[in-house]
Amino acid sequence: MKACVFTLGCKMNEVESASLMRGLEARGYEVTDTLGYADLYLLNTCAVTAEAEKKSRQAVARMRKFNPAAPVIVCGCASEHDAQAFAGREGVTLVAGTMRKDKLLGMLEERGILHEKEAAFCELPPPKRNKTRAFLRIQDGCDRFCSYCLIPYLRGRTRSRSAESILAEAEGCGAKEIVLTGIDISSYRDGGTDLGGLLLKLKEIPARIRLGSLEAGVVSAEFLAAAKEAGNVCPHFHLSLQSGSTRVLRAMNRHYTREQFLQTCARIYEIFPGAAVTTDLIAGYPTETEEDFEETLSVIGEAGFARVHAFPFSMRGGTAAAKLTDLPASVKKERTARLITAGKEAEAAYLGRYCGKTAAVLYEEEGGYTENYIRTYVAGGREGSMYEVRIGKPFRDGVSAEIIKEIK
Ligand code: SF4
After folding, report:
1. Domain identity same for 275 and 253
2. Best mutation site among 154, 183, 254, 311 for ligand 1, i.e. most ligand atoms within 8 A of its Cβ?
3. Low-confidence ranges of the chain (pLDDT < 50)
4. What pLDDT does 15 receive?
5. What's the domain range around 320?
6. What is the pTM (predicted TM-score) of this model?
7. How far is the CA of 36 from the centre of ligand 1 (A)?
8. Which among 52, 126, 289, 325 is least buried, having the fewest CB atoms inside 10 angstroms?
């Protein structure tokens, strides 16, 4: 959730606003003092001149242009001097004046205007497991505020589960593969333990560890060294690229360039030769030109993706991107189709490299997945058992394979 505390007038107002901002931050809000899109507006007004009062009233209209659905709370001298000038305006939920600033946030909580987002990771009982694959929650929430995404507004700020609790669940789950899951597992942190540190703590678990979706920024040389040292981490890295154009990535509020992303892929292949790097791509972001799109198309081969999930851009009300003009549906559809075709070519090239090679497959139904996420179709295995297989030809959404021997 984002709050904007906008201040007019004197130093005193600024100091009081700074305290309000801190109080909002403590309640889990992302806070800004610059007028822009927000879920909640606090307007600290000034009445030192008639002009200052006018500007204070005008600020309400400016806020409503950014988000007409957000409540506007007015405090400060202009609202004390002429409360009615604010109380009657559309969107103004509370006019507080100058006297009760210490009580203001409490009043907003009582009225249900402030929503305290969970600050701690919410522990849940372990879900029902099968002995093959377990999804293990390690983190919730997101602080990244990608311009097209509603998740940070809905799930709140990032928070991590304690490494101790993760370890206990991993030890007790009995699955052969554990998938570390969260909204933004790249931001995992429990005291001094980051995601790489967590992998090292899980190294004695008798299961292979698969990572959920990662942000490219977390895949540093140190992180990869920790994943390698752990010894049980699958060489499969799902890095959501979203666009191959640095210009569009900037517009999306993604904090890397095309070149940095490609360097990350190269780093992965150096430390984990044969690793699968899979990705998500958005076709037709509002500011995406045909040239930008061509860059996304060409990055698929350059990055050597093993699998591509391509989606047309979907405008979500309440996000920063919702203020932009959507591209025609036909353009988004056509670009998505081209990404899917290029993705399938890249996938075929990746699979082709494994024809005749051996791999370890965790048997689920009609076969299973290799460590590097190749779907193999194998006859004659037992669910939950691990097999060394020889990979054959492309088949359905993966490859055919035959069992060489069971791996105990
Ligand atoms: S796309 Fe992912 S990283 Fe970006 S804001 Fe949404 S949940 Fe966070």
Report:
1. yes
2. 183
3. none
4. 82
5. 133-352
6. 0.77
7. 20
8. 325
